[in-house]
Amino acid sequence: MESLDDAEKPMSQNPLLMTEPGWNTTKSREKAVEIAMEDWGCPAFYVGKSRVLAAFAAGKATALVVDVGASTMSVTPVTDGLVLKKGIQKSPFAGNFISSQIRLIFAQSTPPVPLVPHYMVKSKAPIDAGAPSQATFVKFDKPPAASFRRLEEERVLTEFKESIVRIWPGPGKFAQNEEAARAAPGQPFEMPDGWNNVFGAERYKAAEGLFDHKAALVDADNPAPKAEQTISAMINASLASVDVELRPHLLANIVVTGGSSLIYGFNDRLHRELEHMFPNPRIRVTAPSSISSDSSSDSEADADAQTSAPAAASSSAEPVSVADGEVRAVEVAGEEEAPVAKKAKKSRKISNAQHRTADAQEQPESPTDSATPAPARSSNQLEPDAEEAFQQFYLRQVTAEFAEDLDKIRAAGDFSDRALPVLVGALRQGTACFSAEERRRVGRAAVTAATVERGL
């Protein structure tokens, strides 16, 4: 009987994490917990909001998450890891809508584009573009069900969507620039039966309905989206339902996710639409493919901004607004610094003074002389971007008792987040002789850690 109980609870040794959309009901969540804990025997179970996790994956705790999947397109505001339910906007027009638009484009073409799934083709012969197919088809004793053919047709539509469909980059709507789109070079595509053609302006029509409801093709089975169901209108409605103070935060941290958002030109078009709607605030669109590049450029911009700011920031519980709409958090008043942090801060000030003295002594007498070598940096001094990046990071995380673990960390080549405070502390206080490569690795790791901490 015990073996039967084990078989009925296959996850008794495995904790489970499940994601849910922000609009999931309490009843559905309770049912999921019941199945996981009672039927599967999970020792631990957690339900996370999928849009919150998407924001975390982009290194942001506050973001406006635009999710364009297969059956649903949604806009979800996230603040400090919490979903603002009043700002959630969703629409059924997403990836499946694009597939239906491709079907209509094929059907309304002259002549109609044949949509033949792969399983029906036995062999095919090469033909000229636009010529009728010369394929040999498989003969079935019992034809597959209509649902199976529909599924296989969706595979062909997905291939077309991934390789041919483009988002009109702008400026302006596609309907206003159709002649310019026709003049652009087309792209060839071959069907499973060998039929092939070059698609020009047609490839911009399929997804234009996501941005312009008037551009959508309609029939009895495919109604047109409403004006409030376009991406830009949903973002506008979501921002209008949250506090005014949060809007610059959200516009500066837009995270785009979902498979249908990978269509070429999606992020550029979205950015242009939002710049037209919100000309004053700073707008930044982040997608999974551009997270690393966006973070690096934003880190450099923030480092430059911090350089021009006063060195000593006053304690405050309120965020400080920047001119471009970005808001940075400052230290909370009333929190007393720990003794270790005070000691580290004092040591850091002394070290900075020593570095400035050393740099002043190493300046060449004649800066205009091209033969004079450039002044060498102090052996314990980080590069300028790393200096600015870890100022706050160091005070919060570095400890004074790191000498015991330092040799083990360096011997293992460990530059992870766990070892970073020890390495940075040793580098700043000069308790170890670091090579140039080690200094560069610590500096790059500090920049990355500080960037993620600030939510950039």
TrEMBL record:
Biased composition (Polar residues): 11-23, 363-382
Any single Pfam family the record assigns to this protein: Actin
Chain segments carrying region Disordered: 1-23, 284-383
Endpoints of the signal sequence: none
Biased composition (Low complexity): 304-324
Family: Belongs to the actin family.
Name recorded for this polypeptide: Ribosome-assembly protein 3 C-terminal domain-containing protein
Organism for this UniProt entry: Cryomyces minteri
